[in-house]
Structure of Deoxyribodipyrimidine photo-lyase:
Amino acid sequence: MPPQKRKSSNSSAANGGSSHASKRGKPDLSRPHPNAKETEEFGIVLRDFYPPEMCNERCEAYNNGMLERPIETLQKAYEDTVEERQAIDANAAVVHWFKSDLRLHDNRGLQMAYQVARDNKIPLICLYIQSPEDLTAHLTSPARVDMTLRTLGQLQRDLGELDIPLYMETQEKRKAIPQRIVELCQEWGANHLFANLEYEVDELRREAALVRLCAQNRIKFEAAHDTCIVTPGKLSSQQGKQYAVYSPWFRSWCAFLKENPEYLDVADEPGSNPSNARKHFKKLFDCQVPVAPKNKQLSEEEKTHLRKLYPEGEHEALKRLEAFLEEKAKKYDDLRNSVAGETTSVLSPYFASGALSARTAVVQAQKANKGQLDRNQPGYQSWISEVAWRDFYKHVLVNWPFICMNKCFKPEFTDLEWEYDQNLFDAWSQGKTGFPIVDAAMRQLKEAAWMHNRTRMVVSSFLAKDLLIDWRRGERYFMEHLIDGDFASNHGGWGFGSSTGVDPQPYFRIFNPQRQSERFDPDGEYIRRWVPELRDVEGAAIHDPYGREGEASKIAEKNGYPRPIVVHAKSRDRALERYKKASGH
């Protein structure tokens, strides 16, 4: 396929993103971005579920308050229904709706549901609804779906020991989920429904609709702030604005937690249901874990492989957390960027599935660090800071919701002249770029459904800057393959690597893949593990086997390792030129 480019926009949006607000009056916020057809053609905007790519002015309208943020839509739903909800008394049961919080330990929504059930001496029923359309629309990987289903099985067993049923079903139409939840609550005689909030746009809008629908049907729906340690909206700069840079945000996060230690209170696990729960809800205890949708299924061999790498459930998550804090955390600050060996916690699959809460992780690390969040042992401090990034990116998501709509934090960079060469994208995704550190990372992703954070930065920078391929294609590819795919964190990482997001590396700082390789895999151990064609290359030549005449290039050529698909120095110059043009500098 020949190289394809997006033509630069002739509009002035490239200089600020909002200057289309023409002299003739208010901008037309309903019109799509000028290149909306291309973003649909290359799978960036999924038109089966969403409208065309929005214009940059619409992003600005969210920033200046012209458009209501989804979190505000939810808050308004609660405000408008407060009297109806307060008048609702408990009935025959209480329901907790599990989503991305598949654990008993430190689950605030679940604990709230159990307290109401206990106080009224009625059973607690747990619910999980699989939505194939959501899994497709949200680009959820088969590996993460498998992890979720395996975790549900463990969760069901744990709940069963407490005589609490977990009812699970598949709902084919995502729009039907709110009405289906109301129907189930009515069937079970439940007037109280609890869940934990998810902060993506679709989920916030769905919850806002569910609050109103439940109130109309005399059901009290309460969604707890559980995913983040500090609730989005609680932190603001001296100017009263949401932080867009991590370092001052983290200082504010630490200060807030010191002043409000209750935010680090770990919720108790639920106790047992009344003894008659199994009799009254017998069928619910016999429920089977859903089967993965056809487009999200793995082979039995793949399932076995991933189960060995990432055993499911909160028991495994807590065990791994304890082992990491005891064995590796003290050296984390020194070793966290080393891609060889296992120097990190690899807890991200458990955070993503909700088998482990970020709050529990930080509380345990704080205890190991003698009660400190941001001082004392550098290893513990550094790891707490890394966990806090998850909060930061969700705070960003809530305040700038258009990043959930195929736009970047700096909308003007959607006007950058991106490349759409399919051959180059395939070389990147298959780990055949001729840059060993990039290829090792992409092959690890394919094999293990996971990648070290350092190499995530390297490969994202390579795609967006060395190849100048639209970063959103890489963002999608990661979500479709990572077992720990989390929208906010993934988007934030790609924003950093492509210099289009909050707290990015400036666009003029472009990773040199060879230098990254030499610095963070100095002995080539990581490359040799994942790129077998280069295992016999000795010494530093493994970082650039074709860059020197001699044995390294002969081995690489003999084993079929590809030559570099671009010249980094030339690619760097090209990227600087286009980024500079798009930024208006």
Notes: The chain is about 50% helix and 5% strand.
